[in-house]
Specification:
Strand content: 25-35%
Number of domains: 1
Oligomer: single chain
Radius of gyration: 18 Å
Number of strands: 11
Shape: globular
Order of helices and strands: EEHHEEEEEEEEHE
Helix content: 10-25%
Length: 214
């Protein structure tokens, strides 16, 4: 049923008409290998209460008032199956080149009585050495059906293994002036225009995480 599918994408709306229907508060971690290469991106997404109430309807199959991992497993599978064609909303790059990713691992969903959370990891097909070039990634929905905002208190982390000569940063949320400037620029382009470096329109509004090494 549609209400159990988080990532239904409304196809065809113009950019100016697009608006979010689901809101996600997120945290992401960069996962490293033992030798300091980047293995993937680990995510934790906390959904808005409206979506959570709709998604959880009928999921308490044993009627005990709680939602176990087993009960939420079908919802997790449906969510991730729906994300497949959208690269799971995770777009990693080495310099200006996109990196290939593998299917999600370590996926699960929890509900603590207040918040519904989805967690999963997107591995890189080949672990990347950030000393070769800056590594960056963005998390966003190209169709703007879902709005992602980083958790203000704990937005991004680095799991054990980041080389000592590397640093990371999260670009700030665009200001109103920057957003208006981007929208004004888009208004001057025709329908065939695409952003540079193979990105799409959603990338223009997403916050990148950047890892740089000496």
């Amino acid at each position: 049923m549609l209400k159990y599918t988080l990532f239904f994408i409304a196809m065809g709306p113009a950019l100016a008409q697009a608006h979010p229907h689901v809101w996600v508060d997120m945290h992401s971690d960069v996962v490293f290998t033992a030798d300091g290469k980047i293995a993937g991106i680990d995510m934790e997404w906390t959904f808005d209460d409206g979506y959570a109430a709709e998604a959880l309807d009928g999921m308490d199959t044993n009627k005990d008032g709680e939602y176990s991992q087993a009960e939420l497993a079908p919802l997790t599978k449906e969510n991730l199956d729906s994300l497949k064609d959208y690269k799971y909303f995770v777009f990693p790059k080495a310099g200006d080149k996109f990196l290939e990713t593998a299917p999600p691992i370590n996926a699960g969903q929890t509900y603590n009585g207040k918040k519904l959370q989805l967690h999963f990891e997107i591995p890189l097909k080949v672990p990347y050495d950030p000393h070769k070039n800056d590594f960056s990634y963005k998390i966003y929905d190209p169709e703007f059906f879902i709005e992602f905002d980083y958790n203000k208190e704990d937005p991004v982390g680095m799991q054990d293994g980041m080389p000592a000569d590397c640093t990371y940063s999260l670009k700030p949320v665009p200001t109103d002036a920057e957003l208006n400037s981007t929208l004004a620029m888009l208004a001057t382009k025709d329908k065939s225009w695409k952003p540079e470096n193979g990105e799409d329109f959603g990338a223009l509004f997403a916050q990148p995480v950047i890892i740089s090494c000496k």
